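Troubleshooting: if your tokenizer reports a length mismatch, compare your output against this known-good record of 179 residues.
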Amino acid sequence: MGIFDRIILSIYTILLAFLSLGVILISLQLVSLEQVGTSISLIYGRWEASLVAGVFLLVSVRLLLAGLRSRRSGSTIVHHNEMGDIHIALKAVENLVEKAARHVRGVRGVKVTADHTSAGLKLRIKAVISPEGNIPSVTAEIQKRVGEYVQNTVGVELADMHIFVENISNDFKSKHRVE
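Known-good structure output:
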């Protein structure tokens, strides 16, 4: 969710929370009807309106907290030991995988996306391969090296790894002579 969407959601949630709180106060007769006006007399004294407004208030608080809470869950890998917890950011894992994949012969470029689920670590690798490389053997070597490297460095088994050969890169660029 982008920053603009979060701002709109936060404003909406705050307004809906105030509206729900007002309906609760009016329907439970905690605020006199003269203070509010006669246009709201339909919900005055109705417990059903208070119940609906209470549900909206709870949903509003939940949405507001969800919008303000950072995305810490799922964005790190946690190792527990007797000294405490160790958190490894998925961005760090992505950089490690990119480094390991770039060292495979025939790989010209790599983009990595990591996701940690209950099943384990899932990797999506977009690679650019040189034209002289055999694509099945290069991708098999990427899988082998990345799997070993992640296991040895991060200490996590891979649940899934998808490799997408995005392009075949030419090493040679033609030079144009200017005369």
